[in-house]
């Protein structure tokens, strides 16, 4: 085992850029360090240590851009070729602590997740036209078994973009993995629950495998950690990660495949299914009344569209 180097406090994030053979590590010691992964010693691999204003929670790289999520909901965006100052300093769109960051593989932006069961989709281009496309959504929630109209909210611990389709996966402390089409703003699929919280996700280079790290994330305090059984599950990935079209039939199939435990899904389900059935039934009833009453005016009116 080759030790590249050390931090003075907990190493909270590690990200790798294969195009530049560069490794970035972030720590609670408020430093961000870059390493040349081809080196064989700590002295030869260090590419610099950069002081941060806050503790580093998460990092990710794409191309020459490095996104750093800090305490205090800060997000710094760097060009790794010029690390003396950030290209952009932002405040997270999410209200609570940053838990995960993943860059889009096309280099257009990144996704950011928080402990409050939300994910935001952000873009690098600072122009108002592009920034108007960013949005956030709720996820990894389910109705409380004891309280009415109350959701249990779970932290989103990991994000990973698919190398081919550009969709992404999110893993939460509820023990599930969700696949999302961020362009169409849709959830594509949700996996059955794992026995522990999902702590990390990673696709392989071809995108047909997904490694799911599971383990206790301290959501229930110290007692919950005593029964934890961490592990890694490698699952096959199929059509659930493909970009979904936006036609009505796909919307209906998507609604049918989901658990209908949220109010907005129940509303759309009733809108697309109940209303057409009710409308057809009403036309048949009116037609029958017209025939029985021999009302020629209404009969002609009903025949007119056809």
Structural features:
elongated; 306 residues; Methylamine Dehydrogenase, Chain H; 21 strands; 4-stranded antiparallel β-sheet; 38% strand; alpha+beta
In short:
The protein has 306 residues and is α+β, with helices and mostly antiparallel strands.
Topology:
Layout (H helix, E strand, L loop, with lengths): L10 E7 L4 E6 L3 E6 L5 H4 E6 L4 E7 L2 E6 L3 E6 L8 E4 L6 E6 L5 E6 L3 E6 L4 H4 L3 E4 L2 E3 L7 E3 L2 E6 L6 E5 L4 E5 L4 E5 L7 E6 L5 E6 L7 H4 L5 E6 L11 H10 L5 H31 L2 H8 L3
Based on the coordinates given, report the CATH architecture.
7 Propeller
> Outline, from the CA principal axes?
elongated
Question: Number of helix segments?
Answer: 6
Q: Strand fraction band? A: 35-45%
Ends distance:
78 Å
The number of distinct β-strands equals 21
- Tell me the number of structural domains: 1
Computed over alpha carbons, the radius of gyration is: 25 Å
**How many strands, which pairing sense, and closed or not: the largest β-sheet?**
4 strands, antiparallel
Question: Ranges with pLDDT <50 over ≥5 residues?
Answer: 251-266
CATH class: Mainly Beta
Write out the strand line-up for the largest beta sheet, numbering strands in chain order: 1-2-3-4
CATH fold naming: Methylamine Dehydrogenase, Chain H
CATH superfamily: YVTN repeat-like/Quinoprotein amine dehydrogenase
- Kindly name the structural category: alpha+beta
**Overall average residue pLDDT:** 83
The helicity comes to 10-25%
- What order do the helices and strands follow? EEEHEEEEEEEEHEEEEEEEEEHEHHH
């Amino acid at each position: 085992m080759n030790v590249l180097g050390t931090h003075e406090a907990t190493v909270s994030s590690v990200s790798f850029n294969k195009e530049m053979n560069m490794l970035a590590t972030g720590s609670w010691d408020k430093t961000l360090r870059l390493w040349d992964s081809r080196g064989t010693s700590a002295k030869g691999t260090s590419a610099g240590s950069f002081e941060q204003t806050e503790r580093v929670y998460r990092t990710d790289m794409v191309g020459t851009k490095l996104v750093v999520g800090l305490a205090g909901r800060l997000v710094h965006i760097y060009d790794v070729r010029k690390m003396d100052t950030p290209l952009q300093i932002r405040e997270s769109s999410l209200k609570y602590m940053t838990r995960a960051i993943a860059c889009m593989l096309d280099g257009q932006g990144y996704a950011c997740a928080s402990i409050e069961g939300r994910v935001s989709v952000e873009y690098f281009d600072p122009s108002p036209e592009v920034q108007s496309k960013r949005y956030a959504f709720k996820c990894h929630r389910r109705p409380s078994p004891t309280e009415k109209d109350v959701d249990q909210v779970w932290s989103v611990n990991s994000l990973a973009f698919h190398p081919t389709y550009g969709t992404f996966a999110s893993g939460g402390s509820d023990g599930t993995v969700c696949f999302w089409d961020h362009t169409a703003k849709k959830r594509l699929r949700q996996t059955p629950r794992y026995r522990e919280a999902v702590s990390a996700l990673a696709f392989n280079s071809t995108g047909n495998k997904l490694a799911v790290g599971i383990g206790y994330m301290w959501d229930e305090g110290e007692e919950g950690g005593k029964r934890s059984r961490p592990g890694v599950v490698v699952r096959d990935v199929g059509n659930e990660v493909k970009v979904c079209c936006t036609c009505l039939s796909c919307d209906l199939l998507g609604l049918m495949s989901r658990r209908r435990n949220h109010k907005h899904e129940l509303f759309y389900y009733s809108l697309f299914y109940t209303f057409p059935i009710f409308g057809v039934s009403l036309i048949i009833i009116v037609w029958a009344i017209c025939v029985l009453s021999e009302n020629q005016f209404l009969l002609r009116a009903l025949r007119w569209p056809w």
